[in-house]
Amino acid sequence: xxxxxxxxxxxxxxxxxxxxxxxxxxxxxxxxxxxxxxxxxxxxxxxxxxxxxxxxxxxxxxxxxxxxxxxxxxxxxxxxxxxxxxxxxxxxxxxxxxxxxxxxxxxxxxxxxxxxxxxxxxxxxxxxxxxxxxxxxxxxxxxxxxxxxxxxxxxxxxxxxxxxxxxxxxxxxxxxxxxxxxxxxxxxxxxxxxxxxxxxxxxxxxxxxxxxxxxxxxxxxxxxxxxxxxxxxxxxxxxxxxxxxxxxxxxxxxxxxxxxxxxxxxxxxxxxxxxxxxxxxxxxxxxxxxxxxxxxxxxxxxxxxxxxxxxxxxxxxxxxxxxxxxxxxxxxxxxxxxxxxxxxxxxxxxxxxxxxxxxxxxxxxxxxxxxxxxxxxxxxxxxxxxxxxxxxxxxxxxxxxxxxxxxxxxxxxxxxxxxxxxxxxxxxxxxxx
Length: 433
Description:
One of its GO terms (biological process) is proteolysis. With 433 residues, the chain is of the alpha/beta class. Helix content is 23%, strand content 23%. It has two domains: 81 residues, Peptidase S8 propeptide/proteinase inhibitor I9 (Alpha-Beta Plaits, 2-Layer Sandwich), CATH 3.30.70.80; 336 residues, Rossmann fold, CATH 3.40.50.200. It contains ten helices and 22 strands. The strands form five sheets. Strands 10, 11, 12, 14, 16, 18, 19 and 20 form an eight-stranded mixed beta sheet that branches. It has a four-stranded antiparallel beta sheet with strand order 2-3-1-4. The chain starts with a helix and ends in a 41-residue tail after the last helix. The N terminus is likely disordered.
């Protein structure tokens, strides 16, 4: 079996570090069939409920084995591939320069106005919500902003695979719940804060796009925001199985990444094809998303960060042809894990992704099929809102789309007459990872 050089290097690295591996089976092979094969007898670890991962046609299990078995395992036709169980990292969470918290300035209780045409207006709305509901930029606006919407995500569930969620925050209105915890170092809850911020952008009352979506905490990371890949895949498997068991419409938000990893990509693709709308952050390294996973996978919706102060690509955002759409991802306010009456602020594609996840939940509520979600988001998006200066001054963006997420609240042309001509804010380089 031919093995890519990158995979070989990762395998060698894992062997030297005595790390476990993820053994992927051929899609037509069951775990029971594998156990009946002679190759299974050479492994000290056998597939069981604790170490198997099955997401659609992606089947794998986690095992430790001696270096000398690599060749024999790769030669077996029922084994599709072998991957090291690498560490996955969350974006935007380490270091005081990446987050600020406020207890002295609690958030303003939102005010909602119902219109006669089934549109609701949130007055004094956060910037990321206001930007979602208008085609023109808000970079010149200095007064209060409005978020107009005609869906709230009712009947849809959002699985948040992250550092945990402070589900008791009153802004969730009792719609958030614990789902599963695959972090072996911590119990339920969110010590880090990243997951609560992300969940709040998806579906909280004040900061959320989809204000009646159900939030389910699938904890795969902790205060030290990294996890073995197997833990992330187990979380994705759990979310997909929970969705199928309940027969519900659902999105999964993955504001995390690794260096490009075929196992992660295949699992994310399999989950989407099985009916779970998967959204992932492009990353904050100002590099091509093709270098990372799952943002280099085929099926997930990949979201880049827009700096809505200038309507440019945030200078830390990853780029490239894999990016599907941009959303506000600079200085985004949302819920705090520690202060129920305060807020947190983050910069990054981690915050842009839940904006689009919330809108995807609304589209599911309104009848868009899972298979059409990505194309519908692209169809609704504003096609020329990002400043052309962004593209003219950076040749890396040549194959990067000019699309800003829009919720379609008004039936208007998908190109605007007065797009931004501003340049990227170079001061945001400090948020590069």
